[in-house]
Amino acid sequence: MKRSILFLAFALIxxxxxxxxxxxxxxxxxxxxxxxxxxxxxxxxxxYGKRGYFxxxxxxxxxxxxxxxxxxxxxGYSFNPWVAVGAGTGLYWDNxxxxxxxxxxxxxxxxxxxxxxxxxxxxxxxxxxxxQTIFHPQKECLGELSLGVAVRFREGRELTFGVGxxxxxxxxxxxxxxxxxx
Length: 182
Description:
This protein is an alpha+beta fold and 182 residues long. Helix content is 19%, strand content 55%. Strands 1-2-3-4-5-6-7-8 form an eight-stranded antiparallel β-barrel. A hairpin with a 2-residue loop joins strand 6 (139-154) and strand 7. Mean pLDDT is 78; it is low at 18-23.
């Protein structure tokens, strides 16, 4: 719990620093095309960054109270090169019982606008099981905090490698994932 609170505090401080940088840089007006290119290259201001639709597809494996394989898709809106918000769903295949379908809201924050950058993601939503047992109700709340590295190989295309920790009220899990962001 302490780690989650510390991460959220760090994320909020980072976002506020980025907003402050954006407000200072937005006051600079380029005098010609050359200055505009320099601004785009060095500052990557929100006026020049990627805004609009983003998508992410991830494959993963979960270890913990439940062991399963995952396929997830997130679609959403990227406000600038650093912050994106979306909704996701997927399929968790539990070999012992059956399928679990997550439905969640997702917030992603990249800490740098570089070719290789660390990122954090927070998901909050629900799990719907295709089975029900005494220990596993059919619906549960889901929360997950992930950290990883994103490697950009083309503008707007990234490969992500991450680890996550989260779960429901009844189980906790550790997730390894690899993904593709477009």
